[in-house]
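Box 3.1 A note on notation
Throughout this textbook, protein chains are presented in two layers. The first layer is the amino acid sequence; the second is a C-alpha cell string describing backbone geometry. Keep the layers aligned when reading.
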Amino acid sequence: QVQLVESGGGLVQAGGSLTLSCAASGRSFSNMGWFRQAIGKERESVASIRWDGTYYLNSVKGRFTIFRDRTKNTVYLQMSSLKPEDTAIYYCAAGDGAEYSDWGQGTQVTVSS
C-alpha cells in the first residue's frame, strides 16, 4: 500500500525557515512535488522534482528548494525567508506521469508577521 507521510510543518516567524519532509512507502516514484492550499484559495503547485528537472512557483523561487533522497524514498522542501503569505497546508504528491497519483495528508505551515 502506497503512503506519503509529511512532517516538519509548524509555526514560524516571518523571515524564518522550515524544512518539510515527505516519506513515501510502498514504492518509489519518478516525480514528486509539493502543493499548498491557503484558506479561501485554490491549491497551487509550489515545487516539483521530476524526471526532466525541478520547477518552482515564481513567488518561492530563491527561497524554497526541493530535493530528494532516493535511498530514503523521501522528498524535502527547504523553505527560507518565509512570509505570512506562505501560510497554508502543504501537501506532498507523487506519481510517474503527467498527473500525480498519490497524495499525503498535509502539514500546516503558519508564518506569523
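The chain has a mean pLDDT of 96. Residues 80 and 93 are 21 Å apart (CA to CA).
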